[in-house]
Amino acid sequence: MAIRAFGVIVALRVLILGPGSVSAQGQYGTDRATGENYHVEFAFGVWNPTPEILVRSESLGIGGTTVDFVADLGIQKARFREFRLVGRPATKHRFRLSYVPIEYAASTVIAREIVFNGQRFRLGIPVDGLLTWRAWRIGYEYDVLYRDRGFAGFIVEAKYTDVSVTVGSPLVSTEFARARAPIPAFGGIGRVYVAPNISITGEVTGFALPNIDEDYDGKYVDFDLYGTVNYTDHFGGQLGYRRIDVNYLVKRDAGDLKLGGLYFMGVVRF
């Protein structure tokens, strides 16, 4: 992850050679850095993560095999759209919304026997796998420390995660499992301007379920590091690295989902 983060910063330095510096004097009459003078920010782009996905599902008292969607079902790396919306009614207050629709599909002949949702899929039969993941984030950010060239604050948010997994074969049957829940999360954010119109931002949020029942466990960690080049107060570009780690246990059902990779976004502000 450190190597990827370094790559983001190096690529950002390349971007610096493109746009020239613009005045930091904004519409609010302050000396804020370019890109900090806005009430609404919209970003849209493409995320290209590497998947690590393990899922286990039982049914009718029949324990399941931990299915590796990469090694067992052969899913491939894919690109996903992502959008982010920030409302900023006051300097230190930001309301945040983001959404990523994630979907992986693959067809293969399995190289080992697996049991999923009570159904046995034997060695050498064709199997189809489909995983869909709707990842929403709705939150509030308060910047405890705010300066013209950077800030630091905390984030409180709800992550609504809806994951559905389908494993099927024309020779056997199609089995389906689903996990969905709103997850509270807490974390921090920091931004520093390395030039009047160029910033580096890092944030991390997460949640861990208290260990009060051995049949239930879960955690969610979302890490994001990105650089932004602001061509004006209203337009910019972002290059970043994001990683999401989700782990859950519900009785005999379990999942371990990790996605991490680079993304690029265009940014519009008003």
How does this structure look, described?
The structure is a single chain. With 270 residues, the protein is mainly β. It has a single domain, classed as Lipocalin. 6% of the residues lie in helices and 65% in strands. The protein is built from one helix and 13 strands, in the order αβββββββββββββ. The chain has one helix spanning 2-16; strands at 40-56, 67-68, 80-90, 93-109, 114-116, 119-121, 126-147, 150-168, 174-195, 198-208, 216-230, 235-250, 253-269. It has a ten-stranded antiparallel β-barrel with strand order 1-3-4-7-8-9-10-11-12-13. A hairpin with a 5-residue loop joins β8 (150-168) and β9. The two termini are 33 Å apart.
Largest sheet: 10 strands, antiparallel, barrel
Distance between the termini: 33 Å
Number of domains: 1
Return the CATH class. Mainly Beta
What fraction of the residues are assigned to beta strands by DSSP?
A: over 45%
Strand order of the largest sheet: 1-3-4-7-8-9-10-11-12-13
Number of strands: 13
Overall pLDDT metric: 87
Name the helicity range. under 10%
Rounded to an integer in angstroms, the radius of gyration calculated over CA atoms is 21 Å
CATH architect. name? Beta Barrel
Q: At the third CATH level, what is the topology name?
A: Lipocalin
Counted by DSSP, the helix tally is 1
Uncertain segments: 2-29
H/E series, N to C?
Answer: HEEEEEEEEEEEEE
Gross geometry: elongated
